[in-house]
Amino acid sequence: MKALIVYWSGTGNTKGMAEAIADGVKAEGWEADVFSVSAFGGGFDGYDKIFLGCPAMGGEELEESEFLPFYEKSKAALSGRQVGLFGSYGWGDGEWMRNWEKDLAGTGASLIGGKGFICQESQDGIYAACVDYAKKSIS
Q1: Spatial distance between the Cα atoms of 19 and 5, rounded to a whole number of angstroms
Q2: Which of 36, 35, 110 is nearest to 80 (CA)?
Q3: Which of 117-139 are b and which e, b meaning 16 or more Cβ less than 10 Å from the residue's Cβ?
Q4: 95: which residues sit within 8 A by CB, 6+ positions away?
Q5: What is the pLDDT of residues 109-131, one digit of tens each?
Q6: What is the average per-residue pLDDT within 35-47?
Q7: Distance CA 72, CA 12 (A)
Q8: What per-residue confidence (pLDDT) applies to 87?
Q9: What is the DSSP letter of 90?
Q10: CA distances from 45 to 35, 104, 113, 122, 133 (A)
Q11: CA 109 from centroid of its chain's CA atoms
Q12: What is the model's pLDDT at position 129?
């Protein structure tokens, strides 16, 4: 079994979450490929689960210059797939994730766990929480 993790990170928090999710996937005996959105040039074929990560930006929205264009272009290919959403935020209440969850539902993808996984900044214990999220997501 194989998981794909694609993320955008400005401060490093979401990158750390992506790496911890990969560790959780691997701990369950799966393979995990991790890419920043700018380094990802492939498709979704060959992956059993897909995790997409982006922090909240501006007025609680997805990052506009790299991540959002990638996501918009990928929507059709996400249909019928199991997708996990994750990201960090510094303020607000997670509205960007709720909006993203609703948007993903419109693609025909299945949201892993029924909701996205968020972390406010770089809290203590987030590594373990991300590993646990990944383990639960692939079982």
Answers
A1: 9
A2: 110
A3: bbbeeeeeebbebbbbbbbebbe
A4: 56, 60
A5: 999 999 999 998 776 778 999 99
A6: 95
A7: 23
A8: 95
A9: S
A10: 15, 18, 21, 32, 23
A11: 13
A12: 93
